[in-house]
Amino acid sequence: MAKKILGVLVVVGILIGSLVWLLSREDQLIDESAGAKKKLGVVTTTTMVTDMVKMVGGERISVSGLMGPGVDPHSYQVTFRDTAALRGADLIFYSGHHLEGKMQEVLEKRAKKHGGVFAVTDGIVQTSLLMPEEEFQGYYDPHVWGDPKLWAECIKVVVNALSQADPSGAEDYQQRAEDYHKELLALDQWVQTRIAEIPVSQRVLVTSHDAFHYLGQAYGIQVKGLQGISTNSESGLKDRAELVAFIKRRQLKTIFPESSVNAKGIKAVAAEAGVKVSEHELFSDAMGDPGEIVQLHGESYDKGSYIGMIKHNVNTVVDGLK
Ligand SMILES: [Zn+2]
Predict the structure, then answer these.
(1) Which of 77, 109, 173, 216 could disulfide-pair with 223, CB 3.0 to 4.6 Å?
(2) Residue 133's CB: how many other CB atoms inside 10 A?
């Protein structure tokens, strides 16, 4: 009898032990999946903003950029997929100052309702912003990334928002932000050195739309766009005739098409003015394809990164004008 009781007790003991082991294992599995879910889900708009957020967030966040290479943010329409992505995001970063034309309204609505929405260009003091010569509905010129020093000012918006949403990563975000800031200041030095190679009288940039005024202001280049600040406006015959006369007067060698704007207009101007259209498109409102590595003048860069995009643009301009 005693043996029987002992046998039952052993069996019950084994059962309880197994149950405890199973439960603890399940706890562990839940913990692990919760750990994986802890990555902040971040949604971004333009490729430049996507790149900055990835640089600061590193492995701690998962970033989904809505606008790919070659996409024009001025005329961008929000898709059903975008709406779902925006709804599921922990944080949203966009460029701002009405670059994202119609989308800005959607983003502002979401910001009011749920918070967690940030315009990176809010990091720039208003006195550094340019008011376009041509009316842009009273808004500032949004193409601030043309000047790496100004773009670097936007990093703090990203690092602050990420740190607030994920305090345990704050130190990591801060370190990565500082490193990126340094890289952008070094890029500024690089651009200055290259632009100095163009004769002063030839420091004129004629492109498809007015996206390069910040670049022009930072490095002493006169800038003329065929279309205005937004690609939504059409260029008139008068604009075209004036631009042709200007190009002839300044005896420019090359004018430049843009990756996110149809080149038809700028090609027509070049034909009338008798100048070359650069064989390389400038990246104005979107970067190139990630992983497209360029080797030029003894260095290499990725046209799908912000730094690579600026280097590509500046090399194209300098080699076309000097
Ligand atoms: Zn633009």
Answers:
(1) 216
(2) 11
Give the domain range for residue 128: 40-188
> Distance from the CA of 78 to the center of ligand 1, in angstroms?
17
**How many A from CA of 303 to the centre of ligand 1?**
18
Q: How far is the CA of 255 from the centre of ligand 1 (A)?
A: 17
Could you tell me the distance, in angstroms and rounded to a whole number, from the CA of residue 74 to the centre of ligand 1?
6
Q: How many domains does the chain have?
A: 2
Task: Tell me the CA–centroid distance for residue 285 and ligand 1, in Å.
Answer: 5
Say yes or no: 211 and 310 in one domain. Answer: yes
- 117 plus 160 within the same structural domain: yes
Specify the CATH number for the domain of residue 169. 3.40.50.1980
Position 16 in a domain: no
Q: Which tens digits make up the pLDDT trace of 17-56?
A: 554 444 444 444 444 444 455 799 999 999 999 999 999 9
Find the helix packing angle between 103-114 and 80-88, rounded to 10°. Answer: 30
